[in-house]
Protein 1
Amino acid sequence: MERRAFLQWVGIGGLASFLPVAIAACDSNSSSPTAEAESPASNREFEAVGTTEQLQQSGKIDVSVGNEKAIVLRDPDSNNLVAVNLTCTHRGCEVAWQANQSEFVCPCHQAKFKANGEVVEGPAEQPLTTYAVKTEGNSILIQKG
Ligand code: FES
């Protein structure tokens, strides 16, 4: 094969193999499982924060998220694990989990939140920040920020 013919052959082959990849990369509506798995949000690392035994014993696991506090607990409404930032969305006081009431209560202006962070009673209008939670074996992991 002559050099010129070889280069044309390689060029067409390269274009043919590159074009589908380039088109797929430009498709912002792509929702293939691979694209989901590689998105930056899902690639954030989960961090082990405790064990299911710890949660069962104390009812919650205290977690630090940067300079703020969060806790992991089991939502009594859904029975799902939830990880909730304790910073009140009204003016930033630290809410406290009231297990007997199954809600977070803010000591500053008495806002109340469900275990999943939803506002029950103002003056706060925004829900508490929550984090993705999962278990691996008996480890509990959360996806911070
Ligand atoms: S700071 Fe929490 S209700 Fe005002």
Protein 2
Amino acid sequence: MGRDGNEYIDYIQGMGPNLFGHAPEFVTRQVEQDMRKGYIFAAQFERELEVAELALEMIPLEDATVRFASSGTEIDQLVIRLMRGYTGRPKYLKFEGHYHGWMDSVNYSIHPPLDQAGDASSPNVVGESAGMDAGTAESIVVCEWNDVEALERAFAQNPGQIAGVIMEPILANTNCIMPLPGYMEAVKRICSENGALLCFDEVITGFRVAAGGAQEYLGVTPDLATYAKSMAGGFPVAMLAGRSEIMEILGNGTVYHGGSFNSNVMTMAAAYASLKHIADAGQKFYTELNGRGLHLMDGLREAAGQAESKLHVQGVGSVFSISFTTKPEIVSWRDHARNCDDAMYARFARAMLEQGVRLSSNGRIHMSSAHTDEDVQQTVAAAHKVLRTL
Ligand SMILES: Cc1ncc(COP(=O)(O)O)c(C=O)c1O
């Protein structure tokens, strides 16, 4: 409810962190209770260990240890430094359409204009902001995602240079694109053949698509994985999990990691309450969360069909994307840029807001466990109304 008395069904949910909706009581209670003992210790404390243990029980990575930080951007910086530190190689590989934070080292080729993106077989490294350090582009290899040959070619063109590959295992930042069958296994094989590490950026998918994130959902385990948004009910926590053999050089200081606010009492309390809530609820939590999202996707498809609209949904239940296209499936950023009508989506989102439904500017829907069947019904009814007039 806004101050003006307007009420909205919110699918932005802080761009993902609010896995349980806004201000869940069990998180607030835990934070209130823990923070009475102090806010920051700059030393390990019991709750931190409990969060690490809970998280490691949920995620498939075996023989793993963790590090905490305060945002997805920070933790992705750390993993890139770690991949370089471990392998002694200078470059890392990222994919077009994938987002790993706003820092100079990663803010490249997320959604590059097609006239700057270059040939798909060897994409340009396109900066996404003015003011970035131009030198950082030299250590990035950009590749098309979901294309095994493109990845093989990128490694062949940079022999012994690529420390690791980072990717969103489900491409939530571009149309919620799923990996093609066999693609993840192929990426894992290619990394291993070339002595490079594989990192899944699970900042969106972690603790959202399944307790074990995309690793569990897709059945492929990387060497390293980063988490943030959904792990602390809206509080700013991030986590790197990785095979202990790699993580060891962080522990012994060979690779430096700092941050005054890492694993402070409030955020660890929030992470503990969130992960405990999920662990206690068991599989039911995800069956309901994904189920309600799938229900909403079906309702939106039906509304689109009746209105003969180009509205298109794709993704998994707990996180999916709305776009306007006549294609049955969007498979890459270039495909989105060529075939999706973003202006039409912006008009749709604006009209939905007037009907009391709050949608993100990039089309991504975040389901929360606070959404009800009634919210889904109201959203679908609003879509029927809006699509008829759009
Ligand atoms: C996949 C992914 N990685 C990293 C980030 C950066 O996280 P943060 O906004 O917490 O810095 C985001 C943020 O949207 C993200 O979606």
